[in-house]
Amino acid sequence: MDLDWSSVLLRFGLYATLMVLFGMPLFSIYALKNGERSTFPSKTLPTIILASILLGLALSVASLVVMTKNMTGATDYQTIERHAFGMILGETYFGTAWISRMIALAACLIGLLRFRKEPTQVCFIASLGGAVALGSLAWGGHGAMDEGVRGFLHFTADILHLLAAGAWVGALASFLALAKPDSSEKHFAVLARTSLGFAMAGTIIVVTLLVSGIINFYLIAGTNMNLLFQSAYGRLLLLKLALFAGMLVMAALNRYRLAPRIEAAVFSGGTQAACTALKRSLNIEFSLAVAILLLVAIFGLLSPEISK
Questions:
Q1: For residue range 171-230, what is the model confidence (pLDDT) as tens digits?
Q2: What is the CATH number of domain 1-140?
Q3: 153-156: long-range contacts at Cβ-Cβ below 8 A with a sequence spacing of 24 or more?
Q4: Alpha helices in the chain (DSSP H)
């Protein structure tokens, strides 16, 4: 299995960065109240949004350079001709998606300037811009193989899959930021409320991931289940499903055991111990998510064909 690891790492970086950019502001919209957004733990939200935007811009530029090298067959980066970038940007779907991503990230950056005065409005702008930027990554996946109605369905499923994953990753990042053992009782109350209230959003996320994932697999493999066991793509997909199942187990543990423990501790004491336990569980769940993103970055570059 020969891989271009520069492409793998760039894909992984873009997935992780843009999912945080989309998911954290989204979480603040549906989970936090107006007065809580501007004070989101230690005012870290605008810092994370800014870092995600800047990293997303840098990684996007790097991805354009790598893609141009690969598509033109240049032997090294120094031999890439300048006009090749214009060709990629102006004549390919990848170029159109790339330009859309850069515009969306620039809009997020401009909107961020008003965070102190309009935190809710900025969260909407960042989440919307993050959604466009994250969705643009679909044009670098297997959906680009299809055309017409089939291509539209494949791209739609890919985008929904990306957005659902981004919502989950962003929520995990938000919960990790909220889960600080040395916080105030008021802060613990917010953590308890948002942890228990995530059930509906979590259900929508999981259902979207499952349905869009099934559609994607069918469009790639049809009814050929042998692909799962007789190809590198399929075996990595099975590993992804196993890690996904692990995330579901950790999410259930957080929702039905650790979050209620936080809520009880707000009234009876022991919040630091309860918060530490929840954060430990969230770290495991987030680590599983990172592993999944790395796998996706790898098998997204593999041809879904049965090994011979």
A1: 999 999 888 766 666 777 888 889 888 989 999 999 999 999 999 888 887 777 777 788
A2: 1.20.120
A3: 153/215, 153/219, 154/215, 154/216, 154/219
A4: 5-31, 34-37, 45-72, 82-91, 93-112, 119-135, 148-178, 185-221, 227-230, 232-253, 259-268, 271-299
Is residue 118 classed as helix, strand or coil in its secondary structure?
coil
Percent of the chain whose predicted confidence (pLDDT) is above 90: 47
Domain ranges of the chain: 1-140, 146-308
Give the 3-state secondary structure of residue 267. Answer: helix
As given in the structure block, the two tokens for residue 104 are 């969306």
Contact 52, 21 (CB under 8 A): yes
Mean pLDDT over all residues of the chain?
87
Say if CB 195 and CB 259 are below 8 A apart: yes
The torsion defined by the Cα of 248, 252, 254 and 259, in degrees rounded to 10, comes to: 150
Instruction: List the single range of 104-108, 216-220, 263-267 with lowest mean pLDDT.
Output: 263-267
Residues 197, 111: Cα–Cα separation, whole Å: 28
The answer for residues whose C-beta is within 8 angstroms of residue 9's C-beta and 6 or more apart is 297
